[in-house]
Known about the structure:
By secondary structure, this protein is of the alpha+beta class.
Amino acid sequence: MYRKNKKRKKIIIIVIVIFCSFFILFYSLSSNRKQTVVESYLKDVSALVMKVVMLPFTSLNDDKGEDLTESYVIQKNLNVHLEEEIEQLRDALDLNQTLTGYDVVNATVITRNKGYWYQTLTIDKGKNDGLKENMVAITKNGLIGKIEKVTNFSSEIKLITANDVNNKVSVSIATTTGETNAILSGYDKDSDLVQISGVDSRVEINVGDVVTTSGLGGMFPRGIYIGEVETITNDKYGLSKTLGIKTNQDFNNIHYVTILKEEK
């Protein structure tokens, strides 16, 4: 009986620690304001706590046969998907070999928030690894976003699926008649397509046309793959088109990302 009570107390302590860590990490997610020094410090502490606590907590989940937090219900048990994670890690390492023109940092996704699932994710690398705001985040499947906030030990990535008026990506559409530039403007969760709006109706666009970053504006390097045109919708006045772009990335299932630091 003593051992059972001791084990139960350990579980309760772990759950409380994780809950506090999640609360601190996600406190500032809903705001675009600059984070304070205190918030930055607390997020660093939380990131370190999460990395230490996750391993034994996952083991306890195996004993119970179920997840104990909302985020794990969404993120799914890491052990169950171990093979899938190994494959993603291998892809990240392979990607390093192809990005010979950039200094890169591979990072692990340490947490996501249910309320902002398609908005942001947090990785376990930060200023101490040379990361800065606005650095680009990719996987082998293409662009996923850019760093929005960074602390010493963690970074918050704003995903391209975030419906945020400030989250615009300049893109290039390779058509049969040449390239046309446009702006990635949002995400439709129902169709699972990122959206490009305001394309001139006179431009010939076809399903299957490839969309990459254009390099305009200097935020994203040119030529990073985003996806292919899957749907084309004309507005009611026939002046512009809205394109639905199918990516190769499963945004529900991201465990490892690669950050492009700078060109060599």
